[in-house]
Amino acid sequence: MDYYSTRGEAPVRGFRDVLLAGLAEDGGLYLPAIWPKITPDEIEGFAGRPYHEVVADLVGRFAGGEIADEALRAMCREAYAGFNHPAVTPLVELAPNRWVLELFRGPTLAFKDLAMQLLARLMDHVLAERDGRATIVAATSGDTGSAAIEAFRGRERIDVFVLFPSGRVSPVQQRQMTTVLDPNIHTLAVEGSFDDCQSLVKALFARERFRKDVSLAAVNSINWGRIVAQTAYYFSSAAAIGGADRPVDYAVPTGNFGDAFAGYVARCMGLPIAHLVIATNSNDILARAFADGRYEVRGIVPTSSPSMDIGISSNFERLLFEVHNGDAPAVRRMMAGLAQSGSFSIGAGPLEEMRRLFAAGRADEAETVRTIRETYEATGYLVDTHTAVGLAVASRYARPEVPMITLSTAHPAKFPDAVEAASGVRPGLPPALADLMDREERFTTIAPDADAVEDFIRAHARAVTIEV
Fold first, then answer.
1. Where does the pLDDT of residue 468 fall: very low under 50, low under 70, confident under 90, or very high at 90 and above?
2. Cα separation of 370 and 32, whole Å?
3. Which of 95, 134, 162, 303 could form a disulfide with 145 if both were Cys (CB 3.0 to 4.6 A apart)?
4. How do strand 98-102 and strand 91-95 relate by DSSP bridges?
């Protein structure tokens, strides 16, 4: 299968090259030439199947034969073997037709594990075939970094450099990154916001010589492998509660729009998703864009749901490409406007199409706290702050006759102070992480300067090559 950049000025690539590249050379994001279709009978068949089989089926359709089926199945089976629930992504019914999809059953207690555990194996497989190395640079608002570190730790062919905003992730999130001492893991505390971290990563990818010298790769949700792996829990959950004949609504707490775009992909493939509801916290650039067609960057407000404290949602570019019918020059103009002035406007036609595909809303801190408390009092079920944002916005769009599934993106123990303050109950870490706060930390504090980050990576990456 061929993959094209949203900005139209990068080479067409195959699945394996897209996995290793992450971001296209022109700064765009890769999308497939076509959407593979899943028949209603196939969707019905996903009900009751092991989760790893559903993932292998879906990813295989996007791989275009570039990864052998047997190898793909083995990687998927291995990726989810360490999750702590036999269903991998269990559903919990909080009220009639109101569900929570638990996506935090992996090793770092966040939904990022579901894609990252597989992506690490896929990339390792391709690099082994090519006898190559890669250097991963990732920006994180909390969960992506720990998921990447856990998935890629100890791998001989890959070095990982994770940039997180100093003082703006939870203590649990930080220690999940900084207490992994494998020699291929490097954690950088950037003196700035997540957007600063994300801008640094984009700047490094724009440096062609550096990119080639260190075989630079990305594992943020800009990597297509992440998106396609995430489609699986939409299919498996919908199949579990109704199959192909029953429309389902989803509420997706999101910052970078990757999880929400995975739902869009699932719908393009044939899943009967009625409403995709985007839920943001006070950093509501997406909700504002859907409301008035103006995509405008504002300052980041620290919240109790820090993984969503994002001012620029990178994956939104993929949706812009879709609603503009593949008009890459239009996408380039909007991205240029964003870079120059911090904003752009969406035309009436594309905006109408966006609103047909999605709904959007925000939940501020007070509503987030109230939702945690009321959910616990009504059901005895404890949710984290990000899930609470999703539940709060979901309540505005819920319909009695249609199942509403809210994606629960993190375990409440990742944010114990905020959850305890809201509910009076302090969630404990699972036994495997019980000593996390006592483990030795290792990280480097660094200024938000691309030259400084490049120098650090060149000094530590094993994939560095020097042309003579």
1. very low
2. 41
3. 162
4. antiparallel
C-alpha to C-alpha distance for 363 and 424, rounded to whole angstroms: 21
Distance CA 440, CA 241 (A): 44
Tokens 């075989």 belong to: 215
427: nearest Cα among 439, 419, 435: 419
- Judge contact between 269 and 35, C-beta under 8 A: yes
> How many other C-beta atoms are found inside a 10 Å radius of the C-beta of residue 370?
15
Rounded to 10°, the helix 69-79/51-63 angle is: 140
pTM, to two decimals = 0.93
Q: What is the distance in angstroms between the CA of the first residue and the CA of the last residue of the chain?
A: 36
Tokens standing for 262?
């995975």
Which DSSP category does 141 fall into?
A: S
Give the residue with greater pLDDT, 17 vs 466.
17
d(CA 262, CA 394): 18
- How many Å apart are CA 266 and CA 418, to the nearest integer? 33
Q: Which residues contact 208 (CB under 8 A, 6 or more apart)?
A: 25
pLDDT attached to residue 360: 97
Query: What is d(CA 194, CA 181) in angstroms, rounded to the nearest whole number?
Result: 23
Beta strands in 200-256 (DSSP E): 216-217, 248-253
324-364 pLDDT tens trace: 999 999 999 999 999 999 999 999 999 999 999 999 999 99
Q: Within 10 A of 267 (CB to CB), how many other CB atoms are there?
A: 18
**Amino acid identity, position 186:** H
- In sequence order, the β-bridge partners of residue 158 are 134
* Residue 178 and residue 442 in contact, taking contact as beta carbons nearer than 8 Å: yes
Instruction: For residues 152 and 160, give the distance between their C-alpha atoms in angstroms, rounded to a whole number.
Output: 7
The residue assigned the tokens 């990732």 is: 138
Q: Could you count the other beta carbons within 10 Å of the beta carbon of residue 333?
A: 12
Q: Name the residue ranges covered by the structural domains of the chain.
A: 91-106+224-423
Contact status, residue 218 vs residue 23, Cβ threshold 8 Å: yes
How far is Cα 392 from Cα 369, in angstroms, rounded to an integer?
A: 10
Residues annotated catalytic, as ranges: 112
* 414-426 per-residue burial string, b: 16 or more CB within 10 A, e: under 16: bbbebbeebbeee
How far is Cα 193 from Cα 186, in angstroms, rounded to an integer? 19
Number of neighbours of residue 248 by Cβ within 10 angstroms? 22
Contact between 179 and 443 (Cβ < 8 Å): no
- The angle at the Cα of 28, spanning 123 to 264, to the nearest 5 degrees, equals 80
DSSP state of 302: P
CB 297 within 8 A of CB 314: no
